[in-house]
Amino acid sequence: MNRFFDLPSDLQHSWFGLIGLHLREALLPVLAGLVVALPVAQLCVRFRWLYPPVLGLTTVLYAIPSLAFFVVLIDYTGQTELTVMIPLAVYSLVVLVPAIVDGVRSVPQETLAAATAMGFGPVRRYFQVQLPIAVPAIVAGLRVATVSSISLVSVGMLIGNQGALGNLLNDANIYHRPELAVNSVVTTAALAILADAALVLVRLVLTPWMPRGTRRVRRTRTATARPEPAAQPVLEDAVR
Amino acid sequence: MIRIDSVTKRYPDGTVAVDRLSLEIPDRSITVLVGPSGCGKTTTLRMINRMVEPSEGRILLDGADIREQPVNTLRRSMGYVIQNAGLFQHRTILDNIATVPRLLGWNRQRARARAAELMERVGLDSSLAKRYPYQLSGGQQQRVGVARALAADPPVLLMDEPFSAVDPVVRKGLQEELLRIQDELGKTIVFVTHDIDEAIKLGTMVAVLRTGGRLAQYAPPAELLTAPADDFVEDFLGTDRGIRRLSFFASSALELKTSPIVAVDSTAEQIATRGAGDTPYLLVTDLDGRPLGWAEPGELTAGEIDPGRLLPYGRPFEHGQESLRAALDGAVLSPTGWAVGVDGSGRVVGVVSQQTIGEAIRGAHAEGAAVAAGTEAEVSG
Ligand SMILES: Nc1ncnc2c1ncn2[C@@H]1O[C@H](COP(=O)(O)OP(=O)(O)OP(=O)(O)O)[C@@H](O)[C@H]1O
Ligand SMILES: [Mg+2]
What we know:
The structure holds two protein chains of two kinds. In chain A, 78% of the residues lie in helices and 0% in strands. By secondary structure, chain A is mainly α. In chain A, helix 2 packs antiparallel against helix 7. Chain A starts with a helix and ends with a helix. By secondary structure, chain B is of the alpha/beta class. Chain B has two domains: 2-248, 3-Layer(aba) Sandwich (Rossmann fold), CATH 3.40.50.300; 252-360, CBS-domain (Roll). In chain B, a hairpin with a 5-residue loop joins strand 15 (338-342) and strand 16 (348-353). Classes of the chains: A mainly alpha, B alpha/beta. Chain A binds chain B through residues 108, 110-111, 113-121, 129, 132-133, 135, 207-211, 214, and chain B through 49, 51, 71-76, 78, 80, 82-92, 99-100, 103, 132-135, 148, 158. Magnesium ion binds at residues 41-42, 160 of chain B.
């Protein structure tokens, strides 16, 4: 058991250090993705014709293997965390943009008409009505983006040990210590589950206005519908 | 006063939703826009708060073109109620109602106090204040919608089929509530519906629109029922407009008879004298004067009157309060052909036969025709 947490010194981190690094490399890109996705999605809602090309673009970007990204980025950002995080941020857009667009569009026509009729300008209406009502959809998107980002960070091991927990896989190979690989996989999975649970909690806190029945329905819906995109990146890990 | 002045709305796709519509909407009364689906009611209503801009013509509010003030100022001075209420699902009932006061810059405390006051006004229990819209019934949500529209005390209220998504019983309650609130507040209400009965019940003036957004008739409801302008309006009014028109005539015109009434504890002598009149039946009341049922005088034995064996008395009408329609309904429902008039507390004030009601109706019609002829003369003159 001791050897399980006895990490080779070339990692330059304790187990907890690796976890912190991993979370930073996984979550900052999602946050950046959200910051970019919000205005992009708003533009797509405003100008309907913009949505299909934007959707197409995010999908194409998502299809670029991370290795290809690294090769290009390494000239500019070197063997740093940033080189790992930029592709992850780009990948998160493929889930976040449609999630926000669908969420904002799901606000009932009547609600919008009522807001306009009461004298809400477009900006106020967006921030006080559309965005809050879109929160469940946005959080659903964030959950997928976060889980896939946590699992994708590991590929960072390809560029000078920037894969955080993923680096353990490499070391397991080099030092013939399979328990390190187990550690890597189990810890990554646990992080993903905890992050997901945290987001569910955030959603519950932000949306006391959601019907309980629907809440459960929505959860099962996300549980059955979402794993497809969520599972995809995990499977594609091997390819990347 | 709101004046719609020869307004046309042509949507970008070429649909003419409203065609040269002119209407004068009087202050402090309910003006109903009614017509078949797609005739431009919503479009007309939304042009009043500029959610839709007219293609031609203009709309004046108290003499000034509504385009003269900033659009959001205009909208905040007009309450707006829609079908399914359109509540903010992410805000509590109290905060929903406080929306416009908050937009107007009231502090939260004052806005909420005002919202609580309005909840009471529209008949919502204060225990609902902290709930969210999904926790309310359709009828309650609609009340919240009305309260929200009234929150900043706007002089004008625009209502677009506000009660059409609730069941008939709840709808009736909401309509009566609206009339009561209107009695208290005296707003200028423009009310859209496709239900002609609702229009007739609520409207001080009713504008019937036809498909293509043209005005078919603009008149008070009684006149609409008496003298529909054309086949379209007549068709739209439906079959029994003669009967429905009776709701505009007060039952106070009826002379009630008090002679054929006996209390349940009457003596044989009283029964004999009362039964000797020209009416074939006697109405038996309880000791409080409430109706029990009808019987032929010969069937009544003093001291042994069994209320269970009396003939039913139908639905009594409140004399002076309810209309001739209610009186006629009572007479038709009663197996004896006599209607029972009661006071506010349900005590019998007299009875009246179908025949007498018929005479009153003929009298009222003659009067009504004269009134209609009078307004026509005014219009043409
Ligand atoms: N934004 C729009 N673009 C094009 N046509 C429209 C638009 N809104 C409404 N219309 C058309 O204008 C006409 C009048 O519509 P409106 O919504 O005013 O009808 P309505 O009387 O309120 O009908 P309903 O009783 O069904 O609510 C209809 O033929 C409708 O299809
Ligand atoms: Mg409509």
